[in-house]
Here is the input.
Amino acid sequence: MVQLKNIRNFSIIAHIDHGKSTLADRLIQLCGMVTDREFQDQLLDNMEIERERGITIKSQTICLPYHAKDGQHYLLNLVDTPGHVDFSYEVSRALASCEGALLLVDAAQGVEAQTLANLYLAMEHDLEIIPVINKIDLPAADPEAIAAQITDDLGLEAEHIQKCSAKTGLGVDAILEAVVNYLPPPKGDPEAPLSALIFDAQYDSFRGTIISCRVFQGRVKAGDTILFLSNNATYRVEEVGFFRLHREPQPELAAGQVGYIIAGIKNISDTRAGDTITLKERPCATPLPGFKEAKQVVFSSIYPVSTDDYEALAAAIEKLTLNDAALTFQKDSSTALGFGFRCGFLGLLHLEVVQERLEREFDLSLILTVPSVNYHVTLNDGTNIEVDNPAYFPDPARIARIEEPFIKATIHMPERYMGGVMTLCMERRGVNTSYHYPLPGRLEFTCELPLAEVIYDFYDRLKSITQGYGSFDYEMLDYRESDLVKLDILVNGDKVDALSQLVHRSGARARGLAACERLKEEIPRQMFKIAIQAAIGGSIVARTNISALRKDVLAKCYGGDISRKRKLLEKQKAGKKRMKTVGNVEIPQSAFLAVLKSEQG
Amino acid sequence: MSVPPPDAITPESGEGPPGLYVHIPFCRSKCGYCAFTSYPCLPAPPADYLAACAQEASRIAASDWVQARQFATLFIGGGTPTIYAGEQLAGLIRELLARFAFVPDAEITVEANPNTVTREKLAQLRAAGVNRLSVGVQSFSDRLLSAIGRSHTQAEALAAIQAARAAGFENLNLDLIYGLPGQTLADLRESLTIAVDFSPEHLALYELMVEPGTPLAREVEEGRVTLPDDDAMAEMESKAQELLAGAGYQRYEIANFARPGCECRHNLNYWHNGSYVGLGAAAVSCLSGLRLKSVADPTRYAELVGKGEPPYVEAESLGLHARFRETVIMGLRLLEGVSLAELEARFGLTPRGYYGTTVERLVERGLLILNDDSMRLSEQALPVAHQVLAELV
Here is the structure.
């Protein structure tokens, strides 16, 4: 049994791409958890999509055995955190499980928006911070300047700063020593009533939900009956243990420790990050602070391209929600697209991850409709309703008042991009802008924006305006009154409900024209002329035409290339299968999301 | 690679007599748009390559599959077959005619490039039994010829055609291309008019295809070359047809025109998805549904054949349904379409029964014409044939 003084619970926090996963892998390797031969880059990011995008979505925790220079054995619990603004609540729960954090800063790029956002989160949880300057091997690295940023601007102590290259391994051993020497051990009384914080959960098809938790008080072992304070659900514990590269069962988890609990929980939605676990027989007096229900802010309907795949889609979404408690869904139907599901997401990245997982892991061909936020609508008779689907937008004559969600956006960038970013925010109906200089030449710009203006391509536009140097973070603010209209799209005279969107009246005409232009790019020429129109109410506000296809045939086909030409046609046929026929027009999947891309897109 | 010997192949019922093809993968220079297997070789192509083709011919000719058949056509294509000397080519042709059994009126074609033929050379071919010559004219405009990197000139093309007639060729094909960089409708009309003045029995009119990986594809991508747009191409196609129809040429395939009775029998066999034996590097054989492709590198080809090994690098044997679909899409390239009786005899399947509503919808949309005897593309479907074929493949 390891004593509390020999346990350290910590996270690595960083701006995206500052090397968090690489450092985690290096720590794991250094603690002898894997041989060099087994060492696979970025062990912790094990989802395919995460690997491709280099971001962590689903956190993985690992318990590292460490023999320190003081001769003692330690257990270092590295609690991994998701690395994107959509998942800031999940990050906060992971941080609440720790006593300390490594604040990773890129030696060339320095402090960025999420560096600050994560630092503030860590400070809220009273974590001890060890600043780590990473990538010191890069030619553009300037560790001294970054160290000055950390001390002068972030107010952190110079003596604790570590410098390393996670890629080469340089300086990583000193980080482990710093974790042992500077971060405090956990406190807690193993004899007190159990209180444990759920910071993550994953679904295993054999064992049910695997809860990741931090025990603050008391102890839990197999055979105990546990109680979830948020919903009073009770379960009998089957197994507890530590996360190594695989799960490693232990006799118990006691105060101060981080590990997993398996309790035959078949439904992950009962297991909520931030909830408190206690024992049914001897419950704790109060829940741990900070619990919030996951809040979906972006909504979109998901339809199978082929209506035959509806059952497969239903099964796939069901299965996905086992592992993704933040995803909500309910049945939906569309005149153009048939039966599907209205889904709620934490943000657009979450939406894209869900789409990619459904397509890759379940081999489905999908159409997602234009994402929408949730609007508060007050009708003339005083009834309040919530609308997150343009299809259910009430007749404007019945609407007394509409409110839309606003966010506070924080943008970090070199000063020279300020003009462009300011213009972008103004175009997106931004208000109450302010800025200050955290460092000479660098700007922190804040602005209140309607969430609806941010959800599709705001981040892409920001990146292009700032040539990749701008970083973005946001938090939800409140609901504010707005003047919205429903913009419909007609293809050859038929309204395509799945292409409708709610937009601010002031920009409706421009948005309609942009949508028509985007559709013109996305819909391939067909054997007849196609008219695309945008309409508000009964009146057409924009239109464009796609001229008829006049040529589509290969000139030559002789004995030597029959196979190759047949394969080309088979490819064309497969492409047609990924299109949805609306009326007699074939519309590719991509068109349904493209309508929201901006005019400059 | 291991493939069943031709002897082991069961014949497909209802297919016609096979064709024999020899691929000559050499040219004087490689054209910027060409995606065929062809290697530039100057001053002279390798003689041992022809020996290798002859050696493969003798091996294949001994098989039961070949022994059981009479061939209807022989086609020497490329590349540029006429890059070889007249006696070399004539020698190969005589050998093939001796080794394989041919029907009495077999069609024997050689492809030629204008600047590789003389009247003497053509007379040698004619004497060896060649009765059809296909000349790769492409265009009669020197400006356009040099724009696509062809090594010959208008004068050479005219001379080649005159030489062919003088050598006694009464069945002559001219290849022309439209949609060349900078080509106008007037340019095309001029080339066609010159071509028609020679009264060739057959004309192939190809749309320029930008094949991935060719120098032309790169130039188009980088914006150094601009091609006529779809609308201009459609216009050229329709005007060309008018002109050719007026001159007595019947369009019988998407890109092929002939005086009645002068259709290319060798190529008709491809569009009927019949059997053929292909000799030489990169050549494809189709033996009653088994398709074999030979290695593309001529040196490697000669090596393998020299060692007595099969030169194949790819084999494909499609199931009955896939062969049926392939036969339909190939046959629809012909204006007469596919014969329902022939499909039924070969596969026991009918388009209506097999494709069901897919065919009905195409008929309703006016793209397919289906009657008791045949199924074919409508006039309006021809320029956009792939839209239809992609539904049937």
In short: The first helix of chain A runs from residue 20 to 30.
